[in-house]
Amino acid sequence: MTEQDPQGRPPTEEELRAAYEAELKRIRVDDILVQTIVSLLNLGGRRAGLAPGTEDERDLDQVRTAIEGVRALMPLVMAQLGPEAGTLRDALSQLQMAYAQLTGQGAPEGGPGEPPGPEGPGAPEPGAERPGEAPPDAGAGPAQRSGRLWIPGQ
Question: Is residue 123 situated within a structural domain?
Fold first, then answer.
């Protein structure tokens, strides 16, 4: 082996650092956000037990967290996604529907079920206040205030 053979030796720390720096120059924050959204949707589907063989991985708290994470990140990248936005919205909608069915909040004939959230069963009706507490929707966005499952296009 010759000492000039870059194929036969592992990269040096300096070479790794240079490659990392080049990647940081190329990549955009939007790319990482989209990658995170896709990862959350995929992991949420596994934690919902939707993929064959993942039923033993079911963790509805993790599914709820994945849904809320995607809902928080989507508005940050919607404009940059173009046609791909619909694909991600559809995947989110499917995950939300699976969550609603798994938690017994399935959609009644008249409309969609409640969104995943900390409220859970027995939560007060939207707008109901407890003495000494702020309204439950104080500071919430329109999707949270509606008490409805978000469905693309509606």
Answer: no
pLDDT tier at 26 (50, 70, 90 boundaries)?
A: very high
- Burial of 53-84, coded b for 16+ CB within 10 Å and e otherwise, reads eeeeeeeeebbbbbbbbbbebbeebeeebeee
Distance separating alpha carbons of residues 16 and 37, to the nearest angstrom? 28
Number of domains in the chain: 1
Cβ within 8 Å of residue 56, ≥6 positions away = 49
Indicate the pTM of the whole model: 0.60
Instruction: List, in order, residues 6 or more apart from 50 with CB less than 8 Å away.
Output: 95, 98
Q: Which residue has the higher pLDDT, 111 or 20?
A: 20
Residue 91 in any domain: the answer is yes
With beta carbons less than 8 A apart as the criterion, state whether 59 and 47 touch. yes
Task: Kindly state whether residue 129 falls inside one of the protein's structural domains.
Answer: no
pLDDT tens string 73-116: 999 999 888 888 999 999 999 999 999 999 987 544 433 344 44
Beta strands in the chain (DSSP E): none
What's the domain range around 49?
A: 13-106+134-146
What is the Cα–Cα distance from 19 to 93, expressed in whole angstroms? 38
